[in-house]
Amino acid sequence: MTRIKSLDTFTGAGVLSAIAASLCCITPVIALLAGSSSVAANFSWLEPARPYLIGLSIAVLAFAWYLKLKPAKTNDVDCNCETTKKVSFLQSKTFLVIVTVFAILMMTFPLYAKVFYPKPKVQAATVVAVDNKQQAKFTIQGMTCEACEEHVNNELSKVTGVVSYKTSYATRSSLVDFDRSKVNESAIETAINKTGYKVKSYVLVKPPAQ
Questions:
Q1: What is the mean pLDDT of residues 26-53?
Q2: b or e along 11-23 (b: 16 or more beta carbons within 10 Å of the residue's beta carbon)?
Q3: pLDDT in tens, 145-166
Q4: Whole-model pTM?
Q5: Could you tell me where the DSSP H helices lie in the chain?
Q6: In angstroms, rounded to a whole number, what is the distance separating the alpha carbons of residues 138 and 44?
């Protein structure tokens, strides 16, 4: 009984740690599906702890497998007194395999999160007067993975007048080309802030090359 309880404890802890490790990247996808962009950055504060959470998940799942595969001790006195009880599905090796695969998928979620996002709308090709071309670099707080980039890009693609954009969570920024006769920097900042990630500052740079 103690062994079963231990197995359940470590299995649950492994799954929870795996989910927590990628919650900062899972939340933007949930926000997109729920149509509530503002909650996308709610768990970005977990990102610094991600390596430790992944390590914890691997450790506890490894120990759960050890408990599962370790031969059970039997007593010569009572080994023939009762038949071996059938193990429930929740304590079975099959369930542990499912849990392990699920944990791996959660831990690696940032690597494939972008597949859940629709392709950003391509702005219709328009002729922008040279005098109206402008480029701005927005410094964004809260982005932690490619899912965050896609979330910001998804909002930028909806802004009329935005010609192109290049968002990077690594540099915590987004470089946006736009037609300033149709949109200004403040409107673009507002669109980015709708995602839940916050624009800390922005600077105007030279007009994009033709």
A1: 76
A2: bebbbbbbbbbbb
A3: 888 888 899 889 989 999 999 9
A4: 0.68
A5: 2-21, 23-34, 50-69, 93-107, 109-112, 146-156, 185-193
A6: 18
C-alpha neighbours within 13 Å on the C-beta side of residue 203:
4
Whether the CB-CB separation of 194 and 28 falls below 8 Å is answered with no
* Closest by Cα among 70, 54, 53 to 6: 70
Of the candidates 137, 135, 140, 136, the residue with the CA atom closest to the CA atom of residue 199: 140
Task: Give the length of the chain.
Answer: 210
Model pLDDT for residues 87-124, shown as the tens digit of each residue:
788 788 899 999 999 999 999 888 888 788 777 665 55
pLDDT score at 147? 81
Helix/strand/coil for 206: coil
Cβ neighbours of residue 28 closer than 8 Å, sequence gap 6 or more: 40, 41, 113, 147, 148, 150, 151, 195, 196
Q: What are the tens digits of pLDDT across the range 43-53?
A: 777 878 888 99
Task: Return the amino acid letter for 158.
Answer: K
- Residue 173, strand partner residues: 139, 168
Question: CA nearest 30: which of 113, 121, 98?
Answer: 113
- Distance of alpha carbon 98 from alpha carbon 18, whole angstroms: 14
